[in-house]
Write a structure and sequence with these properties.
Helix 9 runs parallel beside helix 10. It contains 10 helices and 15 strands. It is 33% helix and 18% strand. 48% of the residues are buried. The chain is globular, with a radius of gyration of 20 Å. It has an 11-stranded mixed sheet, with helices on both faces. By secondary structure, the protein is an alpha/beta fold. It binds threonylcarbamoyladenylate and magnesium ion (MG). The site of magnesium ion has 3 residues, from loops.
Length: 332
């Protein structure tokens, strides 16, 4: 199959509709990462997405809808705090999990009685979703366990030959996946951290907790138990206050002739002054936006990426740390 990359316009929208109506999958941009979308009402279309990505079949998908879509047709119970959160943060990088009405294919939620819903703010995503006027089930548009894609080129690198169309909406401004928030109980629970931070949710809802996945116990958000976001090279991760150890390892590996890079924020890069740097940038939002493209850049040039964790650990950096730990298989 020939994979086309097209800007979002009348022609590409028409083609995307034909593909989706024919139970196929289309990659599209969002403000977080690119998604691989299929008609959520169509079981074979949804199953096809799992096949294309090589995704484990117990890891549920998020349904994406345009901002005027009537959510009451899909989900059952929307608590007061969720209404306030939706007003404050949607459209945007916040996915909310509700009791499902069971209207979309059961393959979307892998048999769970809940449904994760997301209303992305990216203009291209809204145009695509509005044009289709369907709930679109979409995981990130990467091969399962690889680094998530933040550009059309990243999607092409992973899925060339496996899908017909990538809608190109430029580089994703957010850079890490949406916050996943369980809204089925009395208190909202963060299942996956992201750009809408726990602190932001707490301010609007009045309360919020975070779910800590424990190995061996059934995961509330099944995606948590899998190794994720991994580049195709060796990786290491050091805490900010152990950055001297990272430099020592860099020097030792470099001395052995290993092609090694240090990945860190811009301020740390200046301070440590080594030659091979993957610089994530200075502000928190820059660091999040660059994380995946730097991991993908790194896997092309390096045999080993040694990451130094950001000094700050809360807010947006909680999401960055979560992805860094998974990318490096670290328990830091
Ligand atoms: O930003 C994003 O969320 C991107 C873009 C494309 O929208 N999508 C994305 O999808 O990251 P994916 O499939 O890579 O991650 C979906 C996450 C997984 O961790 C999954 O376990 C969780 O959402 N999830 C989906 N449905 C759920 C449900 N009903 N209950 C709990 N967790 C759910
Ligand atoms: Mg993913």
């Amino acid at each position: 199959m020939n994979t086309k990359i097209l800007e979002i316009d009348k022609n590409s929208l028409k083609l995307s509709k034909e593909i989706i109506e024919d139970a196929g999958a289309v990659a599209f941009p969002t403000e977080t990462v690119y998604g691989l979308g299929a008609n959520a009402f169509n079981t074979s279309a949804v199953e096809n997405i799992f096949k294309i990505k090589g995704r484990p079949n117990d890891n549920p998908l998020i349904v994406h809808v345009h901002k005027d879509y009537d959510l009451n047709t899909l989900v059952d119970y929307v608590p007061d705090y969720a209404v306030r959160l939706a007003k404050a943060f949607l459209p945007g990088p916040l996915t909310m999990v509700y009791k499902s009405k069971g209207k979309v294919s059961s393959a979307v939620s892998c048999g769970l009685d809940t449904l994760a819903v997301r209303i992305p703010s990216h203009n291209g995503a809204q145009t695509f979703l509005k044009y289709l006027d369907l709930p679109i089930a979409a995981p990130s548009a990467n091969v399962s366990k690889h680094v998530s894609p933040t550009s059309a080129e990243h999607v092409f690198n992973d899925l060339n030959g496996k899908i017909e169309l990538i809608l190109d909406g430029g580089k994703c401004s957010g850079g890490i996946e949406s916050t996943v928030l369980d809204c089925t109980g009395e208190i909202p629970v963060v299942l996956r951290s992201g750009l809408v931070t726990r602190e932001m949710i707490e301010k609007v809802a009045g309360f919020c907790t975070e779910y800590a996945y424990k190995e061996g116990v059934a995961a509330r958000s099944p995606g948590m138990k899998y190794k994720h976001y991994s580049p195709a090279c060796r990786t290491g991760l050091y805490a900010y206050n152990e950055r001297q150890l990272a430099i020592n390892e860099y020097n030792a590996e470099h001395g052995k002739g290993v092609n090694v890079y240090i990945m860190c924020d811009g301020k740390t890069a200046k301070e440590i002054g080594v030659d091979h740097i993957l610089n994530l940038g200075f502000t928190e939002n820059e660091i999040a936006a660059n994380l995946y493209s730097k991991l993908r850049e790194g896997e092309k040039v390096a045999e080993l990426i040694i990451a130094i964790a950001p000094e700050k650990q809360d807010g947006v950096m909680a999401g960055v740390m979560n992805r860094l730990k998974k990318a490096c298989g670290s328990n830091l």
